[in-house]
Amino acid sequence: MEQVSSTGRPVQITVTDGYDLKGFKGDAPVTFIRAEFNQVVLGDSAKIVVSPEGTAKYNFTCSFEFNPEGGVTLHDLAHKPVFLTMTEVLPKEKKQKEEKTMILGQAVVDLLPLLEGESSFETMVPLHPLPGSPLEPLRSGIKQCSLEVKVFVAEPLLTVAQISGGNLLKVTLEAAYSVPESFIPMGLLQNFMVGLQVPSAGEKDYPIFFKNGTLNGNHAEAKACYERTISFVVDASEMHFIFLRLGQIYLEEKEYEKAKKTYLQVCKRSPSCLTWLGLGIACYKLDELTEAEDALSEANALNNYNAEVWAYLALVCLKAGRQLEAEQAYKYTMKLKLKDESLLAEIHMVQETVGFGNPSF
């Protein structure tokens, strides 16, 4: 790659305006912006009064020097954003000597366009409120407060040849499926971050996914995402949870052959109680009772406290006409307090049909 000029060049950041702003005190709070980059404070804006409409004109410019030979490098520009912190200056009370301030929120400005050949760009960045800040939206649908920011360098930091010969990797996370229940907003809005470890050598794929989630939302999109992910996988043990989620979707959509194939694949390389249970359910739904019992027995051997495993064992024994084993499996199903009411109703229906299986008959 062509060498980058070692001459230091200033990078200017200008915060022009703020929108939909509010403060702790009064309808016209006094605020200022502090800019930071690479753990260095670049400066503070003047103290500006927010208008009753929630706007403020800061026209605050600060800068740092880009120098690939030392100080701020290309690596810093690629990995580190500019932090803009908005602070409110509270009105002085009687006999108060020192000025009191309260942080309202923070915004981040990504400098990546400078590594793509841009010499200037404008962006509207959201101002993320701190917990308890008046900037927090009281309900969904309210416009989020924001800052208008301009970034400028006198000339592009990289030439066309340097950009085309570079190895800049960009990763875009479009959606997350089966996120944990704790991610579901129950109060204050929260922002989440995903990290991706990139291999320094080789061509191995590293899909991004959240573990231990519960299925929510659009199953069609989630299924397509999971199918695309496992198409890259050679060793199923690396994607244990992805196989579990995809298998569960197939079961819910009554695609039992696909569910059986998915669970069987992961059972061979990364067996667990849940993989064997999924395979057992798929086989039971296909009326393959011998295969279902074999899989459920494997699941039971790994965890004999799973009520759902006992429930399906009870169903298999009921349909196979084995009264004593059916009643024993049902007894453990009830003892372990099966939570799936529809599955329990199915057991009761089969018990009534065959005339046995419930000791209370």
Q: SSE layout and pairings?
A:
Layout: E1 9-19, E2 30-37, E3 40-44, E4 48-49, E5 56-66, H1 74-79, E6 82-89, E7 101-109, E8 120-126, E9 128-129, E10 146-152, H2 160-164, H3 219-230, H4 240-252, H5 256-269, H6 273-285, H7 289-302, H8 307-320, H9 323-335, H10 341-354
Antiparallel strand pairs: 1-5, 1-10, 2-3, 2-4, 2-6, 6-7, 7-9, 8-10
Unreliable sequence segments: 1-5, 208-217
Radius of gyration: 30 Å
Shape: elongated
Largest sheet: 6 strands, antiparallel
Average pLDDT taken over every residue? 82
Structural class estimated from helices and strands: alpha+beta
Strand content: 15-25%
Helix content: 25-40%
Q: What is the N-to-C succession of helices and strands?
A: EEEEEHEEEEEHHHHHHHHH
Distance between the termini: 81 Å
So how many helices? Answer: 10
- Number of E-state strands: 10
InterPro entries: CFAP70, TPR-like_helical_dom_sf, TPR_rpt
Keywords: Repeat, TPR repeat
TPR repeats: 240-273
GO cellular component, one term: extracellular exosome
